[in-house]
Amino acid sequence: MKLVKGVLGATMAAMLLTGCNSLGIVQGEGNTVVVSEDVVLESIITDAKVAVSQPEQISLDQKINHRELLKIDENQILYMKDNSLYSTNLNHSSPNLIKELPVRELSNDGRKALSVENGTISIYNIETGETAEFTDLDESIDGISFADPKGNYISYYSFESSRLVIIDTNTAVKTLIDLNDLFNNPTNFSFSGSVIHNDDIYLRTHIQGEGSAIYKIKPDHSVEKIVSTKELNDNIFDFEFVNDDLLVFNGIINKEPGIFLYDIPNQEANKVVSGGTSSEGTWIPSYSISPDGSKMLFNTILHKGDEFLDNVFIATIENNNLSRSIQIIQNAHLPAVIKILAHWSNNSSAFFIPRTSQDITGYDELTIEYISVYKLDKIETE
Question: Of the chain's two ends, which shows fewer C-beta atoms within 10 Å, N or C?
Fold first, then answer.
């Protein structure tokens, strides 16, 4: 794996991990890479522009809290109310009952809904109105979720059999993967769900004595290590594919928190956004990738007195770096990280951030007062 010079997508004066910190480089193909301490991170915050245009603010007639909100798109808002799926549009229309179904999750494109009730998994196709049900479930399962952006697969973990279960929601074909056999009965083994890209299965794991890694499960159920951490206390948290050759993940690498882009063919990792450490602990920046993989939203935290303030940027993804950063939200109190808050239009031309003026704790029950609509071609800078 090659060592590349990292460029921070953004950093703030309050961040402690800036300037001459060593670049967080991770391993590829199991090869250990030692990073010299004189690697310098160059910040382009001085070049980051500030948006002077204001997003369109659309108030909500319906009383919807963050726990009930499922998706915002240019045409509609999808949300839960009284164990039923509803829609409304941004033009203040009356709510439309779509399906009496306790939906827990939508696919990223908003076309399929996932429900789990009384031991039955239901996949409801919002466009066709068809429902597929899967009832042959183990008694003790966890982490049921969509595994790909289009909802073609769901995955969950069976404690009873120590297996990862993948179900094709279109064909009902079930794939069982014995994790004990796959990783030779490791001790203190954990993984966070699975991601399916181009029909291949990827896992983020943490094994005592080995640290964190992202593995690809081959068709013969052998594993290929794609990327792993060097330090045992380092960690990889969320990860996803930007495109076939590029991964994005956040975590702690070489004891430094941040967001990383990983070039798979060239085995190059680049820390593009830095996190920080304070007396309150270590915080990890959050990100949200546009559906076409061209843009990244990310938020950083400014520690000012007794307050922790959010700053949100949008940047263009080029190769394994960020460019043309624009600050769109400055020193705000946001109720959650940007990965949870942001909703992208399916054509990547706009994103939506639900907002409130209430200064209370508790994200789930916080009522959304208005939607900030950011159209990419309308964002103007100084």
Answer: C
In 3-state terms, what secondary structure has residue 338? helix
User: Which residue(s) pair with 105 in the sheet?
Assistant: 114
Residue 158, CA distances (Å) to 102, 115, 139, 239 in order? 22, 17, 8, 22
The pTM score is 0.85
DSSP state of 297: E
Position 45 scores a pLDDT of 44
Q: Which domains does the chain have, with CATH numbers?
A: 7-378 (2.130.10.10)
Kindly state the helix (H) or strand (E) to which residue 67 belongs, with its residue range: none
The label of the residue with tokens 């060097």 reads 230
pLDDT tens per residue, range 267-296: 888 999 988 877 777 889 999 999 999 999
The overall longest dimension of the chain from CA atoms, in Å, is: 60
Q: Do residues 9 and 322 touch, judged by C-beta distance below 8 A?
A: yes
* N residues, the chain: 382
pLDDT grade, residue 337 (50/70/90)? very high
- Residue entry with tokens 């590349």: 4
Tokens 């956004």 correspond to: 273
Q: How far is CA 66 from CA 127, 158, 341, in A?
A: 24, 29, 9
pLDDT tens per residue, range 194-235? 899 998 999 998 877 778 899 999 888 888 999 988 787 788
Triad 75, 78, 84: Cα angle to 5°: 145
Rounded to the nearest angstrom, the gap between the alpha carbon of residue 34 and the centroid of all alpha carbons in its chain is: 28
CB atoms within 10 A of CB 235: 18
Are the CB atoms for 374 and 352 separated by under 8 Å? yes
In whole angstroms, what separates CA 350 from the centre of its chain? 17
Instruction: In whole angstroms, give the CA distance from residue 373 to residue 344.
Output: 10
What are the angstrom distances between the C-alpha of 368 and each of 67, 75, 329, 364?
Answer: 10, 18, 17, 10
